[in-house]
Design brief:
alpha/beta; seven-stranded mixed sheet; 21% strand; 464 residues; GMP Synthetase, Chain A, domain 3; 15 helices; Rossmann fold
């Protein structure tokens, strides 16, 4: 059989369908308290949603759906919770047979297998508008390491490469994925911390061929390292974490040029919010349009309209369903990333036949805005949810703009419904937006019919 990244679209779909059924029927539906209640409320069974089409019928969900009061403790209900009896009832056949066979040869082996498959052992932080913990079992970490080794290969890296990361100490899915990627690939890695002095000290001890840092910080870090005289002669890959914009890529290229660093490829790696698996840019696309490669057998990717959550074939918000992970269970999870669509054919740069989110813009739907009260993450999906279905609003738009001082503005444009009082509409909209998104809009602008900005476009008007 061809390798994971060279299989046909039909082979990918077949493997994905089997993994999706196992994930929903054998793991999530019986063992996740939140999803068990969610499916019961909607009157759906695990069998009904255990196909790509069935999952597409579920409303997309995100952190605010799981933690509506803003308390991250609510995320615990996403974690699969089962014991030895429940495992025997719901585990898929191969896993259960493995556990039972081990019990025959060694007392206590069954309990150990159940624990490995179901007990959370590791947590990282996620969240765009609130911070919540994502749980992984020991088996999950094996899956992340396997996906990381894949990403390492997609990046064109090998055992001889040496990784130094410049990330905050707070554990994140990105830092975990990089650590396990290097481990899975058998490559040396050192987490140096985010301070330039600490990174420079690490580079004196370890001749890094790969330097990884957040996409919005790597250019400044390179300038600081050059000023500190850090040894960068071995560097061959500048890895931007969090899918970078073209401006961030160009800033890193300029920093490399200022530092006299030649022959360094600028690549990107991305872990969507809430997810644990790293997506990598193939090295073959370093000099052209960047191609981001995901894992067609470990996740189901779909695109939804940001304002309604309904599945669409075009541009919209990327949602994902994790396959083969047994800690925190994510189905139809809203990542906050905007994409132009999904591509599954052979990559024009490297030929891999994997998921490729096109035109991805990280966290575009939960941007951090410089508002009057300071830097604030704003969930634009929550703002739209406060407007959708209001009987006194005939149409609306949510727009992110800037004032003359360069500060961000959150503007809500509304067309009052027939007979609605404009003042009451403004007050009601502002109140509901505050309740849903945690802040007041900068301004609620009333329009006559046909006067909304972007009349033919999306209802969420976000700068690219």
């Amino acid at each position: 059989m061809p390798s994971w990244d060279r299989r046909s679209a039909a082979a990918h779909r077949k493997a994905r369908a089997a993994a999706l059924r196992a994930q929903v029927v054998d793991a999530v539906a019986p063992s996740s308290p939140w999803w068990r209640e969610r499916l019961a409320t909607q009157g759906r069974t695990a069998e009904q949603v255990a196909t790509p089409e069935g999952v597409a019928g579920l409303p997309a969900v995100g952190e605010r759906d799981v933690c509506p009061d803003g308390d991250p403790a609510g995320a615990a209900a996403l974690v699969l919770q089962t014991g030895e009896d429940g495992y025997a009832l719901h585990a898929e056949g191969p896993r259960l047979r493995r556990a039972l066979a081990r019990r025959l040869t060694r007392p206590g082996a069954y309990a150990q297998v159940v624990e490995q498959d179901t007990r959370p052992t590791t947590f990282v932080w996620a969240g765009l508008s609130l911070q919540w913990p994502v749980a992984s079992t020991r088996g999950d970490l094996d899956v992340v390491a396997r996906a990381g080794a894949r990403a390492w290969s997609v990046l064109g890296l090998g055992r001889g490469d040496v990784l130094v990361t410049a990330l905050p100490a707070r554990p994140s899915a990105t830092s975990q994925a990089l650590e396990l990627a290097a481990l899975g690939a058998g490559a040396p890695a050192l987490a140096a911390g985010e301070r330039a002095d600490d990174v420079a000290e690490a580079l004196w001890l370890l001749p890094a061929t790969v330097l990884a840092a957040p996409a919005d910080a790597l250019a400044v870090l390179l300038d600081d390292l050059v000023d500190l005289g850090a040894p960068l002669g071995a560097l061959r890959t500048a890895l931007l974490l969090g899918w970078p914009s073209e401006a961030e890529r160009e800033a890193v290229r300029d920093a490399l040029e200022r530092g006299g660093l030649e022959g360094v490829d600028v690549l990107g790696l991305h872990v969507p919010d809430g997810h644990r698996l790293p997506w990598a840019q193939c090295r073959a696309s370093a000099g052209g349009p960047p191609q981001l490669h995901a894992h067609p057998d470990l996740e189901l990717l779909q695109v939804v309209a940001p304002d309604s959550g309904e599945t669409t074939d075009g541009a919209g918000e990327l949602v994902l369903t994790q396959l083969g992970l047994r800690g925190s269970a994510l189905l139809r999870w809203r990542t906050g990333d905007a994409v132009d669509g999904l591509e599954e054919g052979p990559c024009p740069s490297c030929g891999r036949t994997t998921w490729r989110p096109a035109g991805l813009r990280r966290a575009a739907l939960v941007p951090v805005l410089a508002l009057r009260g300071g830097l604030t993450p704003v969930d634009l999906r929550g703002v739209s949810g406060a407007l959708a279905g209001r009987a006194d609003v005939a149409d609306w738009r949510v727009q992110v703009a800037q004032d003359r001082a360069g500060r961000d503005q959150l503007l809500v444009h509304v067309v009052p419904g027939p007979g609605a009082d404009e003042g009451d509409v403004v007050v009601g909209v502002a109140r509901d937006v505050r309740a849903a998104a945690g802040l007041l809009p900068t301004q609620v602008v009333v329009h006559a019919p046909g006067g909304l900005p972007g009349e033919t476009g999306a209802r969420l008007l976000v700068p690219a």
